[in-house]
Amino acid sequence: MSGVQGGLGEHKRDILKLREEVNGLTVKSASHEVDIQKNSDAVRKMEKQRNMDEQNWKAQNSNSNNNQQQQQQQQQQ
Basic and acidic residues: which segments have biased composition (predicted)? Predict the structure, then answer.
């Protein structure tokens, strides 16, 4: 009978170890989810800034080209 009880005690210890391992992995998973969300937010912010920079650059080049055309027209007159 003591052999069966010893086996049951070992089984309970194994279950407790597995529960601890699952809990640890759950915490790590949640931490990784937070990191992923932070990185996703940072990427979205950079993409938004890049788009704004591109629009500003296009506007500056457009204004520069218009100014050059106006100067050329004035010189021709």
Answer: 36-56
- For 30-61, the pLDDT digits (tens) are 999 999 999 999 999 999 999 999 999 999 98
* DSSP result, 1-34: -HHHHHHHHHHHHHHHHHHHHHHHHHHHHHHHHH
* Whole-number Å distance between alpha carbons of 71 and 77: 10
77 three-state secondary structure: coil
pTM of the model: 0.59
